[in-house]
Each structure stands twice: as C-alpha cells, then as structure tokens.
Amino acid sequence: MSAGLRGDRRRLASTALAGAIAMAVAMGFGRFSFTPILPGMMGDLHLTAGDAGLIASANFIGYLVGAVCAGQGWGEGREKTIGLGALLATSMLLAGMSLGSSVILFATLRFLAGLASAFAMIFLSQIVLTRGAEAGNAHVQSVHFAGVGLGIAVSSLLVFLVTTRPNAAWPAWREAWAGSALVALAGTALVGLLLPDGAARSGHEAGQREAPLLWSRAFSTVALTYGLFGFGYVVTATFLVAMARGQAAHAVAGGQMVEFLCWFVTGLSAVVSLFVWRPVMARFGIVRAYLCALALEAVGLLLTVTLPFPLAPILGGLLLGATFMVITAFGLHLARALSPGSERKALAIMTAAFGIGQIIGPLVAGWLTERSGTYTPATLAAAAVLMLAAGVLALSGRSIRAAARL
C-alpha cells in the first residue's frame, strides 16, 4: 500500500471519527440528554408530564426551524465554522439548563439547543458524508451516525454517576446538565482538531440549480410514513427513563440502575444498528427493511408497557436504539432515490414532516399522561401510529420500489 493511500485512509478515518463525535455532542447530548435528566427535574421542580412535553416540543420546534434555515444555501463554504459554532452553542445551552427553574426558561433554552443541533447536524454532516461519498466508502456514514448512539450511552453513564454520587452540593439533575456541558465542550474541541475544512463539491453543491420537486404518490407516501415515525418514536425517546422511574416505584430495589441501563442500552444498540441492518437491507431491499424497522420499533413500544419491570424499559430501550437511526437513514435514502435532481428539496420536506410529527408527539403524550396518570395510553398511541406507518408502507411497497428503481 502506498504512503499516499495510507494517508488518504487515515484522513477519511479521522473525518468519520470527527463526525461521530460531532453527532454525539449535537444529538446525543444536545437533544437526547434531556431524557435521562428529566425524571430528576420533574421530581425536584414538581414538573408535570405536560410541562415536560412542552419543554421537549420546544426543542423539536427549534430543530425544525434550524433545519429549514440551514437548507437555504447561505452557509456554503463555511460549513466547518458554522458547525463548530453550533457545537459551542450547544455546550453553553446545556450549561444554561443547570441554572434554570422555570418552564418558560427551560423551553427557551431547549428551543435554542434544537436550533444549534440542526445547524451542527446539517453543516457538519455535509462535510463528513460528502467526503465519504467521494471516497466511495459506505462505512463513513455508519460511523458518523453511530455517534448519536455513542452520545446517548455516554450521557446516560454521566447521569448515573452524578445521581449516585454521595454528598452532592447541587441537585443531581443540575450537576448532570453542567457535566454534559463540559463533555460537549471537550467533544467540540476534538471535532475542531479532526475535521477537514470543507465539504467535497460536485453537482448541486457546486452551484447547479435543483429541479422542482416532483410530488409523486410514492414520495408522498414515504414522507407521510416519516412524519408518523417522528410522532411514534419521540414518545419513548422523551419519556423512557421517566417511565422506568414510575415502574421502579413499585419495585423492591434496583430503580436507579434500571433507569441507567434502559437509556444506556438504547445508546449502545443505536451505535451498532446501522451496521447490523446493512445485511438486512442488502438481502430484502431498503423498502422492506424500512417497513420491518417501523414494525419492530412499534413492538418495542408495546414491550415498555406490557412486560414486567425491569424487562419492560430495558427491552423497550434496546429496540428503540436498534431502529430509530435505521429508520432515519433508510427514510432519507428512499426520499433521495425518489427525487433525482431535487435531493435537497426532498430532504427538506422529509425533515419538515419528521419535525411536525416529533413536535406533536410530546404534547399529545403529556396531555394523555396527565389525564390518565400513566404513560401507557401515550405509548399505545405511539405504537399504533408506527404500525399505521408500517401498514401504509406495506400497501404501497411495490409502487415505491418501482418508482425508486430499487
């Protein structure tokens, strides 16, 4: 192997690692650290499930606004600077959460964190994924998005260590937010050192005008299922640890350990999910794999409210982690395949559909939980929505495969 080829591989590996760390900071910490920290906030500040749903939805609204703004083309050539600025903002906003006490302040901070997460995800992913595509290396994408699961697992471990530490000067949830900010800041520095300066440019990235998006029946169906997925996954992704705490209240012991394990397992399974599902996609095709992942995630939601403690939250978390990044990747892949010549517009529509679903999800879940006093109705509703998405896809699978030429 020539020295030049070895150097290219090292640079590509460094880029993929930088992408994974960026996703860990922007998504694993910036978006999903809220889940393991939420039960402590609810207990200490007497927040209701409705309050928690409002705060969560504010984050998702910020993500939707950020995704729409980032897709307008104004950041071309400045991807690394904007992305690193967004990661730095994420760190500062995580620190801000450790100082708040009101729902309005929390919602504002989470809205801004959603905005920053979207900017970091879109601009830094553009660098990493275009470099991987240029090199013809499919593993770069898998490593990059595995960072989301890595961030979830690390944030879960951090929260567990903080909450089990004796003689803490601060409430544990405040220390968890502050610790998350420090980890995110360190991750931001690593991304700055490892990431190359810009995205590879070709086609539309070089300035060619995209064709208008063709709203075919196949594309509309995939966009609908993606929006339903946004609603279905987010209920468990927001309230899983809170659900575990509620179930643990009726158990003899082991509550804190189960809270940690259910979210930690979610993260670990998300890390390996894209690698595990790649052979499934190769064997059965991306449409069938997408359908199976939706159905399996629905099963995971049902397990969280039907199995006994502690199996319910742990197996539910395992199946959530094993599917949600896979559904994300497969759904976006299908949208691009169904929209040749207008891929950016297709991704913007998919992001909007997903964003609307995940904004509505926590609000509905919070309302149902407050009325019923349990997370079971909200979880069953989320599972039903995911099964609806799978059913719609099953009815249209043949036409989608034909339209996408897959």
Automatic annotation (TrEMBL):
Q: What Pfam families would the database entry show?
A: MFS_4
Protein origin, superkingdom: Bacteria
Record's keyword terms, sorted: Membrane, Transmembrane, Transmembrane helix
GO cellular component term of the entry, any: plasma membrane
Q: Which GO terms describe its molecular function?
A: transmembrane transporter activity
Q: Transmembrane segments in this chain: where?
A: 12-32, 52-70, 82-105, 111-130, 142-164, 176-196, 217-244, 256-277, 289-309, 315-335, 347-368, 374-395
InterPro entries noted in UniProt = MFS_4, MFS_dom, MFS_trans_sf
UniProt-recorded name of the protein: MFS transporter
